[in-house]
């Protein structure tokens, strides 16, 4: 816990943040990696404009809890579609639909595939953000509410039938140059949830925290942003464990 607290202090005093496509949580591991490709499109044909679409596909792999190879075994496959609307200079909301296929492993050595070896998730979520800009800085508090429905590979219900999850994020971004080609982004996000299990509801409680730092580069001549990042995922309030994530993503802008 002392190690985790020191890490949080360092991040809280970092003057930086905007990962393009943040990594999802991948369960117990020591290290993990995340790669995603997305397309961001301005929807100028909509009457009131200021709408954007963000579509991405991502894959993640991870190590065992006692090893260090973040590419050791498959962890997740994600398809995500989100629509944003900035209806005021400082206010934005979004709605999204996501499909995820996540591999399941035993929590005990030798950490073999569970039965079933993967589960499906359909997720609907919405978020509301306040955007504050000054000079090269952008500060964005966000509230996000999710409904998550889980299925076994044959579409039968799992032990955890569905989940309601609330996420609270603080994001700070700084442009490193006047032309906005180089950017640093920091995110601090806390997650709380309640689940409908087979016969009862769980308690609504804090579940985990995610802290990330990204560097993003947008070349002058091509409509794409490359982002390289690191995330620390601290799971649980008691008997917690931490996972180190290394991420890379590419987001193509206004291709159509």
Main pleated sheet: 11 strands, mixed, barrel
CATH class assignment: Mainly Beta
The Cα radius of gyration reads 19 Å
SS-based structural class?
mainly beta
Series of H and E elements = HEEEEEEEEEEEE
Structural shape: globular
Low-confidence stretches: 1-19
Give the helix tally.
Answer: 1
CATH fold label: Porin
Total count of domains: 1
- Beta strand count: 12
- Main-sheet strand order equals 1-2-3-4-5-7-8-9-10-11-12
Average pLDDT level = 91
Taken as a percent bin, the fraction of beta residues is: over 45%
* CATH architectural arrangement: Beta Barrel
Terminal Cα separation, in Å? 49 Å
Helix content: under 10%
Organism: Paenimyroides marinum
Pfam families: DUF2490 (PF10677)
InterPro entries: DUF2490
Protein name: DUF2490 domain-containing protein
Please write out the topology.
Elements: H1 2-12, E1 31-42, E2 51-62, E3 73-88, E4 91-105, E5 113-130, E6 132-134, E7 137-151, E8 157-175, E9 182-197, E10 205-217, E11 224-235, E12 241-253
Parallel strand pairs: 1-12
Antiparallel strand pairs: 1-2, 2-3, 3-4, 4-5, 5-7, 6-7, 7-8, 8-9, 9-10, 10-11, 11-12
Structural features:
globular, 11-stranded mixed β-barrel, DUF2490 domain-containing protein, mainly beta, Porin, signal, disordered N terminus, single chain, 4% helix, DUF2490, 256 residues, 12 strands
């Amino acid at each position: 816990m002392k190690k985790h607290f020191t890490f949080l202090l360092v991040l809280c005093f970092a003057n930086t943040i905007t990962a393009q496509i943040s990594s999802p949580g991948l369960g117990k591991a020591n290290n993990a990696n995340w790669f995603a490709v997305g397309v961001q499109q301005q929807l100028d044909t909509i009457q009131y404009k200021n709408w954007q679409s963000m579509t991405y596909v991502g894959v993640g792999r991870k190590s065992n809890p006692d090893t260090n190879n973040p590419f050791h075994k498959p962890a997740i496959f994600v398809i995500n579609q989100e629509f944003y609307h900035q209806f005021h200079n400082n206010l934005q909301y979004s709605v999204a639909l996501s499909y995820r296929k996540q591999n399941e492993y035993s929590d005990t050595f030798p950490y073999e595939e569970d039965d079933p070896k993967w589960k499906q998730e359909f997720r609907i979520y919405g978020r509301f953000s306040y955007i504050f800009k000054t000079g090269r800085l952008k500060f964005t508090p966000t509230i996000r509410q999710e409904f998550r429905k889980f299925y076994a590979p044959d579409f039968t219900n799992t032990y955890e039938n569905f989940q309601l999850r609330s996420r609270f994020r603080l994001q700070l971004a700084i442009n490193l140059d006047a032309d906005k080609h180089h950017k640093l982004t920091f995110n601090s996000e806390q997650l709380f949830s309640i689940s409908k299990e087979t016969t009862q509801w769980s308690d609504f409680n804090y579940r985990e925290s995610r802290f990330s730092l990204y560097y993003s580069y947008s070349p002058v001549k091509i409509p794409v942003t490359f982002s390289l990042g690191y995330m620390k995922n601290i799971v649980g309030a008691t008997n917690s464990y931490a996972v180190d994530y290394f991420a890379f993503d590419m987001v193509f802008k206004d291709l159509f």
